[in-house]
Fold this sequence. Notes:
Number of strands: 4
Helix content: 10-25%
Shape: elongated
Largest sheet: 4 strands, antiparallel
CATH class: Alpha Beta
Number of domains: 1
Bound molecules: zinc ion
Structural class: alpha+beta
CATH architecture: Roll
Distance between the termini: 61 Å
Order of helices and strands: EEEEH
Amino acid sequence: MNKINTQTGNCLDIIPCPRCEGGLLVATLEGFETSADNQTITVTDVEMDRCDQCGEIFLTPSGSERVDDARLKHQDQPNQ
Ligand SMILES: [Zn+2]
């Protein structure tokens, strides 16, 4: 039983939205607003999936890594 059935499921390019369950998530690169050190910062070019129906966004693992990184850098700096 070593065969892997690739005919069902595994449509990695099409992810249904877990929020509205009707939309599809589309990968995109966008600015993302978050808070760091009681301030709002905008991180540019964050990798995320956006629902084409409800507009909900879900950060990808590398996208959230980028946001975390930006928050850490922001906290390292004195007031700009
Ligand atoms: Zn949705």
